[in-house]
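Morning. Coffee machine broken again, so started the prediction first thing and wrote up yesterday's gels while waiting. Chain of 403 residues, entered below exactly as on the submission form.
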Amino acid sequence: MENTVLILSTLDTKFDETMYLKRKIESLDLRSVLLDLSLRGETNPQADISSGDVASAAGSSAEEIRGLKERSRITDIMIKGAARIAKKLAQEQKVKGAIGIGGSTGSLMATEVMRTFPFGFPKVMISSTAALPGLATRYIGTGDIMLFHSVIEISGITELLKNVIDRAACAMAGMIHGHIAVPTMEKGKCIALTMMGPCEKCASMTRKSLTEKGYQVIGFSAAGIGDRAMEEMITQGFFQGVIDLAPGGVGEHLFGFMRDAGPERMESAGRIGIPQIISTCGVNHMTPAKSKYKPEDFQRRKYNVDKYRTWLRLTPDELKKVAEEFAKKLNGAKGPVKILIPLRGWSAADMVGNETYDPTEDQIFTRRLRELLKPSIELIEVDANMEDPLFAETVVKTAVDIM
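Came back before lunch.
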């Protein structure tokens, strides 16, 4: 594979800046392939992959693009075509990294294309809007993208902008020329582990014990984005087993709350048939945005995780609905599944003395889940809090048995 970098930009609005980036990339002993994401349907001879080529890859054409009035429709076409081209380039090992440059629209388009590339593939986005509220999370999403905030507008080749582009280009060169370990996952020995603050002790004990037994354990923060990324990486074949201590994102998606992990949460492992251990950290709590509290939410029992985050206790009816969603997802699993339920609290938030601690009410979830699970799925109750060593020991023993 040659040291070739894919450059993503809109040449109709960022031509001079993109050409400077291209020259800088090539001065660093790298080759470049320039893909034009322009939205006007114009052909630029400097592009290696023209905007017309991109539109064609999406089943459209430059002529159709020029005739469209709706900007969002045009961007959808260009993203679709560019993603297909990028995926093919990666599969054929024709590019070794990707770098984009742009404002808000250019950044949204380029980073969505970058997420086509796998974990570990170098990705850099030079963006003048990286710090705008809400946009950075949209740019990065579940991708391992390096977001390079230009601070100044990307408009005209000034000494300040040259400095920004030079540093970003050198970062890309460093990632390609540098000695970076390629991610390798030993067959049968790599496990994905969900974790979060209220079950961090259990997660740490589990990881340490399994690492000592020769497993490679990769943790994911189950706050909505991390567990979405885990689901994608499971599908890509990174892992041979899953320990899902904190699948609360299932209920959060069901009710539309802040830890929403998407519609495919807790499905990828079952779909490809790898073993799963499921537990319940955060499942009996909800995290709606405080600005969106309903009047009845103020009356719920609550637990302040920290000064920024408050967990609210689910109602019995909500617990039943989450159990039904769990059963629907897990009953479709092709591989082995075991569910571990701690009887003395599902997390550090579920301790005696805490307002939301209610193991009797938690049994509503457990009973409904047991009623609906197919016979091959074993539900094991452990007389401990999730953060007790006994529970972590049970997780490790179960993992060794089924992984």
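The chain has two domains: 4-177, 190-402. Going to sketch it on the whiteboard this afternoon.
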